[in-house]
Amino acid sequence: xxxxxxxxxxFAVIITLxxxxxxxxxxxxxxxxxxxxxxxxxxTQPSIExxxxxxxxxAPVTVVEFGDFKCPACKAWGETxxxxxxxxxxxxxxxxxxxxxxxxxxxxxxxxxxxxEAIYKQNPDSxxxxxxxxxxxxxxTDHDSAWxxxxxxxxxxxxxxxxxxxxLQEDMQSQLVINNVNKDEILVxxxxxxxxxxxxxxxxxxxxxxDYEQIKILINKELEDSK
Length: 227
Ligand code: CA
Description:
Blueprint: H1 2-36, E1 40-41, E2 53-54, E3 61-67, H2 72-90, E4 95-101, H3 107-122, H4 124-136, H5 150-158, H6 165-172, H7 175-190, E5 198-201, E6 204-205, H8 212-226
Parallel strand pairs: 3-4
Antiparallel strand pairs: 1-6, 2-4, 3-5, 5-6
Helix pairs in contact: 3-4, 3-6, 3-7
The structure holds calcium ion (CA).
Calcium ion (CA) binds at residues 51, 100-101, 117, 180, 184.
């Protein structure tokens, strides 16, 4: 008789214990996720002076991409995360976006960067089209093959209105352009860039540049703090 009386109570205890175990497991999993999501904070944010920049110059939050024209992940980032970022935050005036060259793939990275900086010097309005079209020319497979050549640069630049090819050649030799590429390398070292693309939201470097939810969280937090 006592047995019968006790059993619903026992059942309730078992259910409670089971729910408790499930909740504990969830908390542990959650903590693990946030541990692996630790982004790196710097005391300062990269200076974007002289860098190609999109958006309102007074935008309260700055997103910087450290990218390499030879890097497949940068091409992928530019085609997936970048358009969302522009639509959600740059077009609304909340974020300004700047691009800094990384030369991890050697001479071709450098040639592409020098050309891009020269176009920015000649006509900042033409820069982003060149930037996009150069990434577009990156081979889908065998991206290690040599493809950033002077011929390719002339072909792309020649198809964009507002770019003078002779001036481009001259600017690519200019000290200002060389200095701008060197300036990028200094930022790469200062912010300990290890991978491309690397994405910074103000002073925070993301662990996973493709985690757009995390990018949103960081931007929204910075927007809140700027109020
Ligand atoms: Ca630059």
